[in-house]
Amino acid sequence: MDWPAVATQLFGAGHAIVADGDFLGGTAMFDGAAIAVVGTTDHAAVGVDLALRQARAVLEVVERFPGRPLLLLVDTQGQKLRRRDELLGIHRAMAHLGCCLDLARRHGHPVIGLVYDQALSGGFITSGLMADACHALPDAEIRVMRVPAMARVTKLPEALLESLSLTNPVFAPGVANYVAMGGVRSLWDGDLAAGLRAALADRDSADRRAEEGAQRGGRRLAADVMRRVLEA
User: Fold this and answer.
1) Within its chain, how far is the Cα of 84 from the centroid?
2) DSSP at 164
């Protein structure tokens, strides 16, 4: 689903969200209150410029509109693989975006992520995964690394990783596997406004991903390991 269709289903035709290249930004009214929207479109490759532009938009919301909810619309192919961006410090720019989102959360802004199309790699880690909770549309595509790339990094046979992906969500792409692992809290299927309404009503900003992953059987050990480390 493209972003105009998502915005219309969420807010009606009167929203003030606009696209400028790969950047999405603006405001909309939802249940009588304003909500800020920041995001990406067209399978954006997030480089230094786009990361800093999103960060600036988040900081402007924090400065000018205390407590205003922030919706992150995610459609990204990951970080931009260009020498220019590497030389300019893309890792620092993307970390800065993540820090700005964390700042918004710490200042009382509900931050909600919605993967409406594609979410890959670092472009997802420093956006939707930095929200209080990340949600997704059922047809969204989510992955951090393709199996062939995983095989090159881990030095394990691709066939072995393919077989593991059939039974273990950690090795497999797909939105359902990210729900199982707790990385995606819920799927918004059908009534998108109802999904946003429920997300805004859930004011618990604690990181529940490990616990939800254990409950759903996608990450069976993470929550227990974290608990044991904290108790040590």
Assistant:
1) 25
2) H
Report the alpha-carbon distance of residue 223 to residue 11 in Å, rounded.
36
The answer as to whether 49 is a domain residue is yes
Which pLDDT score is estimated for 204? 78
Examine residue 229 and state whether it is found in any structural domain, yes or no: no
Q: At what angle do helices 222-231 and 209-216 cross, to 10 degrees?
A: 130
Give the separation between CA 20 and CA 205, rounded to whole angstroms: 30
Contacts of 166 (CB under 8 A, 6+ apart): 172
> Whole-angstrom Cα distance, residue 73 to residue 67?
19
**Number of structural domains the chain divides into:** 1
pLDDT value of position 200: 94
Q: What's the pTM value of the predicted model, to 2 decimals?
A: 0.89
Q: Could you tell me which residues come within 8 angstroms of residue 5 by beta carbon, excluding any fewer than 6 positions away?
A: none
Instruction: Match 């067209």 to its residue by tokens.
Output: 42
The pLDDT assigned to 32 comes to 93
CA angle 4, 5, 11 (to 5 degrees): 85
Summarize the confidence of residues 92-120 as an average pLDDT.
95
Across the chain, what does the average pLDDT equal?
Answer: 91
